[in-house]
């Protein structure tokens, strides 16, 4: 018996545990000091009434003989896939419902999709990054290369003549940097993938935060993407489903490699290893896409966006370079006075009582940067910013 030794190559993630430890230590030494947390990537507003109503109705159905449901289709109920297809149609993207797979959130599918790819593929991951992309590849023993986000490229790195990749991860709006690729920039990636026979794994978990009509909310708004991209999305940040769990993955039928349809491979994978998302949850997710559910969930997003704009305004006034915050819940900024990410973390905690996330925790090129999030309450955000603004660097 041998274990999968690739797991031994994973780096321990100390980011959030170190943040929690430092905050706890500071709090016990300064019990009267107010602490404002702008570090969390989780939503704080409750599910909207339209979702609660749909969930409640579905619970009642499950208790009646006539409407009870057992196993559903592994790829999701047609009612939800059809409404997601209609949501894409409004974006100008035509999707057959068989191209949509309902998941229990984007994280699982982002990891699981690797089942359908060979382990000898070259993987290209932007740094700084959502760590799941890296760890799931290390677990499978794949070689990972990085493309670096920098101040110069405003954290939207693009391929150059030296770039090589079979699998490319892109996340837009980005976690942790909040940067968003334009259509023209995504076209460069799509053309690169088509030319190199590569596949783009496009994470659009934060697409609902985009309000600038010129920016793409789906990679399929870019010509050629259906021949080279898989898209992952989620109701987590769109509708506060982080604890309810529902997302979806789009695998176009026209996406083929080695003569095989990736849609067929993914369907085979899902029907073998997955038994679907609860009926009740899928009814809740469907409610997000109704007129009323959409209006209510977008109101919550507007609340978070308002927090993001307050954070951006403060940074602008302080003359600090930042990206994100406009079409994203994340704000990514350069630590003042050339401080390292962790030095700035300590400084901000001790001088202002504000907790953020050090950029270095998201990868090498995150060093010297810092992430704040807009998912807190308005009161907490305003108080944190008041305290932050009073600092002198
Ligand atoms: N993708 C990104 C970039 C994320 O930041 C997150 C969660 O924070 C996810 C995916 C996972 O979302 P889900 O809750 O749908 O699993």
Helix content estimate: 25-40%
Regarding quaternary structure, what we see is: single chain
CATH superfamily of the largest domain: Type I PLP-dependent aspartate aminotransferase-like (Major domain)
Per DSSP, what share of the residues sits in E-state strands of 2 or more residues? 15-25%
Radius of gyration: 21 Å
* Separate helix tally: 12
CATH class of the largest domain: Alpha Beta
Rough shape? globular
Q: How many discrete structural domains?
A: 2
Q: Catalogue the unreliable spans.
A: none
Give the rounded overall mean pLDDT: 96
Terminal residue distance: 57 Å
- Determine the CATH topology of the largest domain: Aspartate Aminotransferase, domain 2
CATH architecture of the largest domain: 3-Layer(aba) Sandwich
Please write the string of helix (H) and strand (E) elements. HEHHEHEHEEHEEHEEEHHHEEHEEEH
| Spatial order of the strands forming the largest sheet | 2-8-7-6-5-3-4
**What is the SS-derived class?**
alpha/beta
**What small ligands are held by the chains?**
pyridoxal-5'-phosphate
| Number of E-type strands | 15
């Amino acid at each position: 018996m041998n274990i999968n030794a690739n797991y031994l190559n994973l780096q321990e993630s100390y980011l959030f545990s170190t943040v929690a430890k430092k905050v706890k230590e500071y709090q016990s030494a300064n019990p009267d000091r107010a602490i404002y947390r702008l570090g969390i990537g989780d939503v704080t507003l409750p599910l909207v009434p339209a979702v609660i109503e749909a969930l409640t109705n579905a619970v009642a159905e499950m208790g009646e003989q006539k409407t009870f449901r057992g196993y559903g289709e592994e790829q999701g109920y047609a009612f939800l896939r059809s409404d997601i297809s209609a949501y894409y149609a409004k974006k100008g993207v035509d999707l057959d419902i068989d191209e949509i797979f309902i998941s229990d959130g984007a994280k699982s599918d982002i990891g699981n999709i690797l089942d359908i790819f060979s382990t000898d593929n070259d993987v290209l991951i932007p740094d700084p990054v959502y760590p799941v992309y890296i760890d799931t590849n290390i677990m499978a023993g794949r070689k990972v290369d990085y493309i670096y986000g920098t101040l110069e490229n405003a954290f939207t790195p693009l391929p150059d003549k030296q770039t090589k990749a079979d699998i490319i991860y892109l996340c837009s709006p980005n976690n942790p940097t909040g940067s968003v690729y334009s259509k023209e920039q995504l076209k460069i990636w799509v053309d690169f993938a088509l030319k190199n026979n590569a596949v783009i794994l496009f994470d659009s978990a934060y697409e609902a935060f985009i309000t600038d009509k010129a920016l793409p909310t789906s990679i399929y708004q870019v010509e050629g993407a259906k021949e080279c991209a898989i898209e992952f999305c989620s109701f987590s940040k769109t509708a506060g489903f982080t604890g309810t769990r529902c997302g979806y993955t789009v695998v176009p039928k026209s996406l083929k490699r080695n003569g095989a349809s990736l849609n067929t491979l993914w369907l085979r994978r899902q029907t073998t290893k997955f038994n679907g998302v609860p009926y009740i949850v899928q009814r809740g997710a469907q409610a997000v896409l109704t007129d009323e559910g959409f209006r209510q969930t977008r109101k919550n997003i507007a609340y978070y966006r308002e927090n993001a704009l307050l954070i951006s305004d403060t940074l602008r006034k302080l003359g600090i370079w930042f990206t994100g915050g406009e079409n994203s819940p994340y704000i990514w900024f350069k630590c003042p006075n050339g401080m390292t990410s962790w030095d700035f973390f300590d400084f901000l905690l001790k001088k202002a009582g504000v907790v953020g996330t050090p950029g270095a925790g998201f990868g090498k090129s995150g060093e010297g940067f810092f992430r704040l999030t807009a998912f807190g309450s308005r009161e907490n955000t305003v108080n944190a910013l008041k305290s932050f603004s009073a600092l002198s660097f």
